[in-house]
Design brief:
The complex is a heterodimer of chains A (172) and B (174). With 172 residues, chain A is mostly helical. Chain A contains 7 helices and no strands. Chain A is elongated and about 55 Å long. Chain B folds into 2 domains: 46 residues; 105 residues, Up-down Bundle (Four Helix Bundle (Hemerythrin (Met), subunit A)), CATH 1.20.120. The N and C termini of chain B lie far apart (78 Å). Classes of the chains: A mainly alpha (172), B mainly alpha (174). At the A-B interface, helix 1, helix 2, helix 4, helix 5 and helix 7 of A face helix 4, helix 5, helix 6 and helix 7 of B.
Chain lengths: 172, 174
């Protein structure tokens, strides 16, 4: 029981630091913000859907528009996971914790899907054929980029997309 | 007469530059070597796969590490049905949007996928709790002091990969 309490306290201090340490283009070398290295998840989304230059800014704007909301949901999800762990380590089933996790993850997937629908509406017929693959890229973008961008800056965003967002011209 | 003198000076300068470059290169290589593969300095190599990171962060003994591996191998295997449903339910969302299905159908697909994601999260958390239960009282005391941030995030998405769980972790999973 005491272990669970400590988990709760210590996880709240810097919940996102562990996520930022690896993968997805960290601040110190992922390439996204610095325009070098491996393509960012956003670049991969653009490539997968074969977006033309005119389509990139509206798609980037869509993602910018949900960045703070997504980051907030990711933060909430971390808290929900912590609740699940506390229940497990206390050996007490907690249906409320499970339901809360499911509710938050549903909001997140719904948000992802809304973005996908909005992007899909802008695609040309030949691009729509690649939409399913684009949805996979979008998932990656949400998990890798949005999960650690807005939240790490207080969840408010900075008027531009987070790490891993457009490194190519015309993105803003 | 002056030409050979200039030539000698140029040659001497070139040699100096080459020697300086060589010294600099050796210094750089040694510095890189220190970062990547520390040797007699007493530092251990940085763990890169999940099991090694977990073992380092919780201070697992060799026997505990082996037991954790066995347990997580089994958990990864038992997560296969959820893993498979995650793929199909995710694809169903994309298919619903592509097919222009009505919003209630899309919402139902979202709910189905979210349910699988929640199920996977439960498996991940249950496995983490099982690992924590393997710790000795002393290790648990240490965990209380240090916190378990690393294992907590290490288990996010641990069973999503079809192949193996004991790989270098990346930011996957909710």
């Amino acid at each position: 029981m005491r272990l669970a309490i400590v988990v709760a306290v210590l996880l709240m201090i810097t919940p996102l630091s562990a996520q930022r340490s690896r993968g997805g283009g960290g601040d110190a070398g992922g390439g996204g913000d610095f325009g070098g290295g491996a393509p960012t998840p956003f670049d991969q989304l653009v490539d997968t859907l074969d977006l033309d230059k005119a389509q990139i800014p509206p798609v980037a704007a869509l993602l910018e528009g949900v960045e703070a909301q997504a980051a907030g949901l990711f933060q909430e999800l971390i808290q929900r996971r912590q609740d699940l762990l506390n229940a497990e380590t206390n050996h007490s089933a907690d249906p409320a914790a499970s339901a809360a996790y499911a509710a938050t993850v549903t909001k997140l997937i719904a948000l992802e899907t809304k973005v996908f629908q909005d992007i899909f509406a802008q695609l040309k017929p030949n691009q729509r054929q690649k939409a399913a693959k684009g949805f996979e890229r979008l998932e990656e973008l949400f998990r890798v980029t949005l999960s650690t961008s807005g939240a790490s800056r207080g969840g408010a965003g900075r008027g531009g997309p987070g790490r891993g967002m457009p490194s190519r011209g015309g993105g803003r | 007469m002056s030409r050979p003198s200039i030539g000698r000076r140029s040659t001497a300068s070139l040699v100096l530059v080459l020697v300086a470059s060589l010294i600099a290169s050796v210094a750089v290589v040694r510095a890189q070597g220190d970062l990547v593969a520390p040797t007699p300095t007493g530092r251990d190599p940085v763990p890169t796969n999940r099991l090694d990171i977990l073992a380092a962060s919780l201070g697992l003994t060799k026997e505990q590490k082996s037991a954790v591996k066995t347990q997580l191998d089994a958990s990864h295997k038992s997560a296969a049905p959820v893993r498979a449903r995650l793929l199909t339910t995710r694809a169903a969302i994309a298919a619903a949007v592509q097919a222009g299905k009505p919003q209630p159908d899309v919402d139902a697909a979202v709910a189905a996928h979210a349910a699988e994601m929640a199920a996977m999260a439960q498996l991940e958390i249950k496995s983490l709790a099982e690992v924590l239960a393997m710790l000795t009282p002393e290790q648990q005391a240490e965990a209380r002091t240090k916190g378990i941030r690393t294992p907590f995030f290490l288990f996010r998405g641990i069973f999503l990969d079809n192949g193996r769980w004991n790989v270098e972790p990346v930011s996957t999973g909710y």
